[in-house]
Amino acid sequence: MALSRPALITLTALAPVSWGTTYAVTTEFLPPDRPLFTALVRALPAGLLLLALARVLPRGAWWWKAAVLGALNIGAFFPLLFLSAYRLPGGLAAVVGSAGPLFVAGLSVFLLGQRPSARTLVTGAVAAFGVSLVVLRAAGALDTLGLLAAVAATASMSTGTVLTQRWGRPEGVGPLALTGWQLTAGGLLIAPLTFLAEGAPPALDGRAAGGYLYLAVANTALAYWLWFRGIGRLTATQVTFLGPLSPLTAAVVGWAALGQALTPVQLVGMGLAFGATVAGQFVTRPSRTPGSTGRNVRTDAADARDGALRR
């Protein structure tokens, strides 16, 4: 059944909202200082679950395409994100991540042949500024490695988002299978790094097991299925403008569940970031660059048929 555009945007937005709960679950339920193991448990079981449900494996060129997308969206993104979160002060990693719409706008010029509008750039800047008001705190010395990891994580996810839209899906393959391919490929990439850097898995109690179960099923399998489904039906810019909902959700969860206060400045920042997120769904469609061979693979037919070929 075809979804209306507002319903599709709302469902896609549930992905970054879910990701916004990751920090609270990690700090309250999971063993400390195991970022790679957490990334592995999020990715690989979720990918295998979706593969079992979809019962479709890649064919032909999609073996390497799925590996590339899995590396960009999962295998590189997860470890870089955790590294930046552990090393950067305050919420600087979230601020760098909120610049995703600007990364996508730039990448779309080269990979999709689309020239971003001034409104897109301004809205992206407002979103990043709003998030900075929400998450930044007084901090000590800036960690260069952490900053580079945050920039690389944002660039990796943004590139994966644009390539996912450019390549679409092979005929007869729905978003469930495509998501499973990427999570599995990313998880397999993370696995050897986890055991080399962190050693054997930690002992888990019931609380930790429940936290990992939530991260693998709701926070990853379901959330990434909704995310990649949205990428196939919306523009890359529209999808990326939903990203600031993640740090906003984290702030709300911290206030509601962890007793963290919200200052007036943070409330203003939340309003700016949320307003930019909404405005980002109505930005002018990017124009094609002169002489470009780039393609926007989003088609209206995708709303009616998951398996449409978009090349």
Question: What's this, in brief?
Answer:
The protein is 69% helix and 1% strand.
Characteristic key phrases:
single chain, mainly alpha, 311 residues, 2 strands, disordered C terminus, 14 helices, two-stranded antiparallel sheet
Q: Tell me what portion of residues adopts beta-strand conformation.
A: under 5%
Rg calc: 19 Å
* Total number of beta strands: 2
Low-confidence stretches: 287-311
Main sheet: strands, sense, barrel? 2 strands, antiparallel
* Mean pLDDT over the residues: 82
Estimate percent helicity: 55-70%
How would you sum up the global shape?
A: globular
Give helix and strand order, one letter per element, not per position.
HHHHHHHEHHHHHHHE
Find the structural class using helix and strand composition: mainly alpha
Helix segment tally? 14
Distance between the termini: 23 Å
Q: Name the strands of the widest sheet in spatial order.
A: 1-2
What report would you give on this structure?
By secondary structure, the chain is mainly α. Helices cover 69% and strands 1% of the residues. The protein is built from 14 helices and two strands, in the order H-H-H-H-H-H-H-E-H-H-H-H-H-H-H-E. Helix 1 (5-19) runs antiparallel to helix 11 (206-233) and helix 3 (35-54) crosses helix 11. The two termini are 23 Å apart.
